[in-house]
Amino acid sequence: MLTKRIIACLDVDGGRVVKGISFRDLVDAGDPVELACRHSDSGADEIVLLDISATRGGRATALEVVRRAGRELFIPFTVGGGIASLAQAAAVIGAGADKVAMNSAALADPQLIEAVAARFGSQAVVVAVDAKRRPGGGWGVWSAGGTQPTGRDALEWVKEAEDRGAGEILLTSMDCDGRRAGFDCVLTARVAEALRTPVIASGGAGGAEHFGAVFREGHADAALAASIFHYGIESLEYLKRFLDSLGIPVRLPC
User: Fold this and answer.
1) For residue 253, what pLDDT band results from cuts at 50, 70 and 90?
2) What pLDDT is recorded for position 2?
3) Which pLDDT band, with edges at 50, 70 and 90, does 71 fall under?
4) Would you say residue 252 lies in a domain?
């Protein structure tokens, strides 16, 4: 049985890690390289670095942060934010990332998914999807760091992303993000059931029990969190041993 992955996320703005609620009210959480190394040493299976202001600011991902982190990390490392072309994806991978995450640019030009997958393989392509519940039911897709509604249906978009070559879907519930009340297991399960591609659940982790729920009820392949790790609310070792006690397969710390 494949092990479930625990992924530590670093949302970076202006070279610093930040965290907020529903993508707003951001507060400083520390240096991205120091935090990435701390999470790696504590047992994270992967690191995701998202330059959350790059797309809104119309600029490329800050490559110096990627280079610094890439030199220090020995676990898979994904970078997203501001990747709007094949050349920018190549620059990020050349700076040390194992995978690139695309969101707004992929929505604007879905062929970008195909181009990056053709160049680097689907295993290097993560399509990030920021989804929010619609008043009439279902979930809509938002872009530009969760600031702009696209009018697209989340389930339709993840299926298209998979068909175009995405190797993973990073699914963030905007309704749950930063609230520490649990992942959106219903949304995650609907996406996971619709795809062959691995789904990373994101948004809402507040305790070990939330990870257990999203793996069991949400059928996620991996779960991502940020603030609970940054502020020491949960240790990765404790989290993995808790999941192991539930019979959920994880890679335990040595």
Assistant:
1) confident
2) 87
3) very high
4) no
Q: Fill in the DSSP letter of residue 77.
A: E
Nearest residue to 42 (alpha-carbon basis) of 207, 232, 245, 248: 232
CA angle 131–57–227, rounded 5-degree value: 50
What percentage of the chain's residues is helix, strand, coil (to nearest 5)?
35, 30, 35
Q: Residue 134: which domain range?
A: 5-245
Q: How confident is the model at residue 226 (pLDDT cuts 50, 70, 90)?
A: confident
| CATH number of 169's domain | 3.20.20.70
Q: How far apart are CA 62 and CA 40, in angstroms?
A: 21
In a domain, 253, yes or no: no
Answer yes or no: is 197 within a domain.
Answer: yes
Given a cut of 90, is residue 189 above it in pLDDT?
A: yes
Total domains present in the chain: 1
Q: Is residue 250 in some structural domain?
A: no
Residues assigned a catalytic role: 11, 130
**Long-range contacts of residues 138-145, Cβ cutoff 8 Å, at least 24 apart:** 139/187, 141/107, 142/174, 143/55, 143/103, 143/104, 143/107, 143/108, 144/55, 144/56, 144/104, 145/23, 145/52, 145/53, 145/55, 145/56, 145/104
Do 54 and 82 form a contact (C-beta atoms < 8 A)? yes
